[in-house]
Amino acid sequence: MKVLFVLMHSAPYRDPVINAFLKANKEYDVDVVYLYGDGVLCHPEWNLAHETIEVIPHKKIKLLNKTFDWHKGLLKKVRKYDAIFIGGYFPVVNLLLLIKSVFLHKKIIFNCDTVKFKKGFVHNFIYRYVRKSSAFFVPGLRTKNALIQDLGIQGKRIFCGSYLIDSNTWISQIQKYKKTASSKFKLLFVGKLREIRNIPLLMDVAESLRKKNENIELIYIGDGTCYKNSLVAQIDRGGVVWVPECSYDSLAEYYAQADCYIHPGKEPYSLALSQAAFAGIPIVSHFAVGAADDYIKDGYNGIVVNEDKVDYFVDSVLQIKNNLEVFSDNAKKYAEEIQKTRSVDWGKDQLLGAVKACAE
Prior knowledge:
Helices cover 40% and strands 20% of the residues. It has 13 helices and 15 strands. The chain has helices at 15-24, 92-103, 121-130, 141-151, 167-175, 199-211, 228-237, 248-257, 271-279, 292-295, 310-322, 324-341, 344-357; strands at 2-7, 29-34, 54-55, 58-63, 66-71, 83-87, 107-111, 135-138, 158-160, 185-190, 216-221, 240-243, 260-263, 283-286, 302-305. Strands 3-2-1-6-7-8-9 form a seven-stranded parallel beta sheet, sandwiched between helices. Strands 12-11-10-13-14-15 form a six-stranded parallel beta sheet, sandwiched between helices. A two-stranded antiparallel ribbon has the order 4-5. Helix 1 (15-24) crosses helix 13, helix 5 (167-175) crosses helix 8 and helix 6 runs parallel beside helix 7. The model is unreliable at 44-49 (pLDDT under 50).
């Protein structure tokens, strides 16, 4: 069976599983192409990309007063493949690729991380073709449940594990650093300054903790411009350390020294949450972060907060701080557990299941 993987770009949360699948399943004739290879949307500094990958050239086109990226030659590739792996970000070319694949009766593996499928004429039109997919490859339980509940997809057609870090390498990196004694409780957040990260709420939490004189220091790792003024203002007030840039190797040291990880945002998934879980540190996360379903046992290795309320996050952080030994021990035990249930090998087997579903 000939399979074409159409990926947006290199990504440290996706490459390990794809690479492992390619190496372990050479009986399948697989080609992988990127829609973007210029490093704008990925993490070039982490150097985790595939080797020898074709990048489909693109140009800007105008249609109905809107500008779109057009990837010349991609649609012509469809005919020679039996199955197409399509990402759900939906640049125009991916939507057309999905529609053409359906009309040519190609098998489709639909890859998405959506946690709530919107309603409306345009969306319903797209979903009509999405439902034709033979299999779905998703990050975890939140997206799986959304596909079942919102689109009526059968659970047996959904395979989890599309976003996974190389946990063995990551844990080895963490173990290079011995946790040093500190008078401060170190609270960590990692992620670019983006609206979905809910930076103002995070800064309000940091300020409330500062006023309570709890000797807690928030370490914010990530660059960007969105809500930068809010971050800088809190740095001036105190209680926050900002690290705009950080290499992958250096990142492990911050996790090794952290007492707790916090994520008050609302995003479909979070690589950082998995890094924290594998690092064996307690986590406080908003329910709206999809990865919470896969990496937090509420009240065991962390706490899931259901509302955008500063007090709820502050109380959760303090609960972990005041019971740090118990939460930390549980977090380390849970890290060992997910080594089996959320490993790259597990994800590779899940992807193989999705490919085999196309052969049925």
